[in-house]
Amino acid sequence: MPSYLFWLFATVMLSGGAAVIAFRNPVSCALAVVACFVGLAGLFIGLSAFFVGIIQILVYTGAVMVLFLFIIMLLDLKDEEKRAKALAPLAAGLSLVILFAVQLIGVLSRTANKSAPELDAATLATAAANLKEGGKIATALGEGRLPDTHLIGQTLFTGYNLPLQILGVLLLVATVGVVALSKKTAD
Amino acid sequence: MATLNDYLLVSGLLFAIGLAGVVLRRNIIVVFMCLELMLSAANLSLIAFSRFNTVNGLPDYNGQMLVFFVITVAAAEVAVGLAIIVALYRARQTIHTDELTSLKG
Amino acid sequence: MTLAWILFYLPIAMAAANQLVLRRNPLVPYLATAACGVCFVISLLLLGANGTTGFSWAHIGGLDIHIALKLDHLSTGMMVVVTGVGFLVHVFSLAYMKEDESVNRYFCGLGLFMFSMTGIVLSENFIMMFIFWELVGLSSYLLISHWYHKDSAADAGKKAFLCNRLGDFSFMIGVLLLWGISGSLGFEGLRTWANDGGVAAAPATLLGVAILCIFGGAVGKSAQLPLHVWLPDAMEGPTPASALIHAATMVAAGVYMLFRLQLSIGAEAFAGFAGTTIAWIGGLTALLAALMATQQNDIKRILAYSTLSQLGYMIMAVGLLAGEAGMFHLYTHAWFKALLFLGAGAIIYACHHQQDIWKMGGLLKKMPITTATFAAGTAALIAVPYVTSGFWSKEEILAAAYHGDKFLFSIATGVAFLTAFYMTRAFVVTFLGKPRSDDASHAHEVGPIMWVPLTILALLAILSGYHFASDLLNATRPEHIANTTVLIASIGTLILGFGTGFTLYRGRDKDPLSIPLFRERFYFDGIYDNFIVRYFQDAFAAIIHFLDELLINGLLVGGLSRGAVSLGNVFRKLQSGQLQGYTYAFGLGVILVVYFTVFL
């Protein structure tokens, strides 16, 4: 991915994130999160993780954030009251963030950098040689495409079958839990 | 071309922004959103590692698997969390953390 | 070996089933008796068996504790005595305790006792023996205070338990000392150690002290001086239980244990001051208890002091390095003393729980079977020559004393005279003459459930001394060496004692002799109550009070709690209840962790 696209999406993402903190209205915050996630999905796609990028848009922005908006509107939340911003917590929070950022830069400067390995037709074709001849994945790789979804599907259903099923149970439990939680109890 | 450290830096900054949001904001829904930001920051790191450490010339799909699971669990978490917030609002008529201090010793 | 485990577990399984499952079921006494009968049969089947079976129970450093059953000549012979007397006592109790409202609790206690006693007899090492040693103490406590609503019974139970504890503590110290000296707790291990010259190599004084400490356990359990005070009071318990526990088996456990020790480390180890002390304590107990018995009026107490005196005999024999003689006397004594106690039980039952011999009299005509059996028991106890079992065993002890220590021999002869005297007194006053109270005049013969065990025991009291019986039952028996002096002394004291007793008490309505010193049991109980209990207990209580109030309560418990409260108050301040505050601390923590892992 060209550098300028990376910086574009990174800026979208980070400014979205900053807007989440800055906006007072929860609805604006939610929309800022959406913007942030769109930028994030761009970065994912830039990293050749097409499937995850799409999932990020579909699940997060499409479902989760809609749920957030739904709840915000359900609860009919007004703007946070204009209260005198105490300076101390703000300073403390910012100092924490700055400390974290400084430490992050410190850590990164001490570790070896790495540029992305090539994913061109030649390497893909080499990768295809390790796979079963004539399979969908091998064919696509041979044609110089990265069949991201196929590869994820294969990994998911061969290497992560049990976690996947456990995850299904987890979702079921969460569903039941949500129903139980939001049921109005008769007083 | 962006290097691994660029991605990690951006991811770390997003995490820091999320943390700052959690610390600073008083509206529990916004705090919850900031938590989602922090999760996504972790996801970004994982995807970057997956892309920058190839296996047999292909991205390491184990990393992407982890992201897939995190997203799914996060969706469940959001559902439960929001249900709790609704229940909380019903019980206390507020979702401002300043007013939720029953943990005070 | 499976049989041995069945023998071991059956009584406790039965007692547990009775207590936990059946509870108030009227079948309980019969089931308990049946179980005990099975145990007796198994004991008979195990006669002559040899071997060890068991498992490792705990392993602490170099200390390996086994729960193991050891079958040999000594233990199988002893098991027959324990289960035989136990079974007959069970049968007798069926009738004796019939009207008791908590008869089931009584039979559970008996079951627990049988289990514990089996454990002592079959145990393969001192730790297991100690465990069961404590358990018999417990079951004895439970049975003595069976009628716990009576203050005297509850107090007697406590007294017995405390005296036993005192002895048990000494026992434990002794066992640990012995372990320290020899590095072994098992009887086999001790034997190997002794055979390898361990006794000679060990410091003689330390070994003697260890033996004396172990003997302390026997002092408590077998009620020797100065811890003998509990046994007469233990007569507050039901009479059959007294017959089983406080006459035939548990009190003899001390002798058994000492003989076990003597077998393991060899009699030579007892030579020196340890053996002398043991012999003298036994001899003195025999003498003092016999003197006390001459002035008691309660039939059970007479028998209790007689038991003390006979136990003194056995202990003396062990101290004189003639453990076989002690064990043989234990074996014969178990039969005839159980017989005497059960006979006393039958009399008490017939006389509506009247225990004073001066309020009995003339029972010969009313209870002929009981009288005959009681006479057999008395004959065995006063050692009528050649006919009774008691003669053979007492002869061995007298011979041992004759060879060991002439002074102890004279004491033992004196005791023989006294025994003949007080038993004649008890017999004459109880059975001859005419009834001296309504209870006695209304007495009539007891039912067959009671007199059948009496008859069996009477047969054993006579026959068990003969070689065919003692060999059949695997009794430990020393080689008999004819000794004219001993024989003359034995017969002479018998005739003298019997004659004195008979002429003095025949036809009397009240005691012509009054020796307060003997009647008041040499004021032992008074001294204990007034001196030891009062001063020691009060002083000890004051110290304990001080420790408890100031040190424990004020400093440790109170101080700790105050410290915890103030510390808690400090941490309470941290709990602001502010969600953000917690998050901030958490974030700071993450940063610190990263700092320490990456930059340091």
Protein model, in words:
The complex is a heterotrimer of chains A (187), B (105) and C (600). Chain A has a domain at 1-79: NADH-ubiquinone/plastoquinone oxidoreductase chain 6, subunit NuoJ (Four Helix Bundle (Hemerythrin (Met), subunit A), Up-down Bundle), CATH 1.20.120. Helices cover 75% and strands 0% of the residues of chain A. Chain A contains 8 helices and no strands. The mean pLDDT of chain A is 85. Chain B has one domain: Helix Hairpins. In chain B, 74% of the residues lie in helices and 4% in strands. Chain B contains 3 helices and 2 strands; from the N terminus they run H-H-E-E-H. Chain B is elongated. The termini of chain B are far apart. Chain C is mainly alpha-helical and 600 residues long. Helix content of chain C is 75%, strand content 3%. Chain C has 26 helices and 2 strands. Chain C has helices at residues 2-22, 28-46, 73-96, 103-122, 126-144, 151-182, 187-195, 198-201, 204-221, 230-233, 239-248, 250-265, 273-293, 299-319, 323-350, 363-366, 368-381, 389-404, 406-431, 438-441, 448-463, 467-472, 484-505, 516-519, 524-574, 579-599; strands at residues 51-60, 63-71. The longest helix of chain C is centred in the C-terminal third of the chain and has 51 residues, at 524-574.
Properties at a glance:
heterotrimer; B: 105 residues; Helix Hairpins; two-stranded antiparallel ribbon; C: 600 residues; mainly alpha
Provide a count of the helices of chain B. Answer: 3
Count of the separate structural domains of chain B:
1
How many strand segments of chain A?
Answer: 0
Counted beta strands of chain B: 2
Shape of chain A: extended
Summarize the structure in short.
The complex is a heterotrimer of chains A (187), B (105) and C (600). By secondary structure, chain B is mostly helical.
